[in-house]
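Give me the fold.
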Amino acid sequence: MCSFCFRCSSFYLIASAISMHRQQPGIYPDMDFETYQQSEGLNQTTLKKGLSPQQFFPSGPESPLVFGIEAHMLLLEPDVFHQTFQRAPEGLNRRSDASKNRWNRLEQEQGKQLIKSNRWDGLMRLQKAYAVHPGVRQFMAEGMPEVSLFWKLPETSLMLKGRPDWMNPQQKYLVDLKLASRVDAESVRKAVTSRSCLLQAVWYLSGIKALTGEVFAYHLIFIQKHPPHLISLYQLTDSDIQQGEQDVAEAWNVFRSKSE
């Protein structure tokens, strides 16, 4: 098993055992995910664990969590996706020892991870719907994907970090990409007002303000995981951000109480 593989369930255990890199506060547009993961800093995922029960997703190459990682990479960093993954031959799976051996041999020969053909084709259809949507094209015409942020908690030495999906420093907005089963107005509103979503948004906005002194807007793109891959766009309101700030404050209180 590799030390960094999107489909290795033990990656997070491996990463936690590696000595953490110490970064200077700043915005790092070209930092890879492995370096970000191994860098010192408290992220919003850790902070919000105290607010609600942890969600556990099935592990393995066919899990929803893995599909989300693959889709995010394809939509936000297509060049990286195609450098990392390749389509498996039609019908090839890993059900038998022989097919597993062939699968592993192809990955070693090509230096890329295989994705089952039907799953690959589904990802390509998702990308096509995403690429032709006028609102998506407008948001993603300029900016940087997967930007790593590192900043200090005011009046402390505690390093914080975050990795928003997309940042446009010229027009001052962040974009968060969400895969969803439903993208109708009611479902989107329910997802937006969840504690997890607003806490994440305010966390990133706080990092940007700490590093630039600027107030950014925050947009969400909801894309349906299954055909016809409908897309809905949403911009956080002042009321949403106020609620997110309350969620962050509550999460800090829980975090500090458990750290004492």
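DSSP finds eleven helices and ten strands in the chain.
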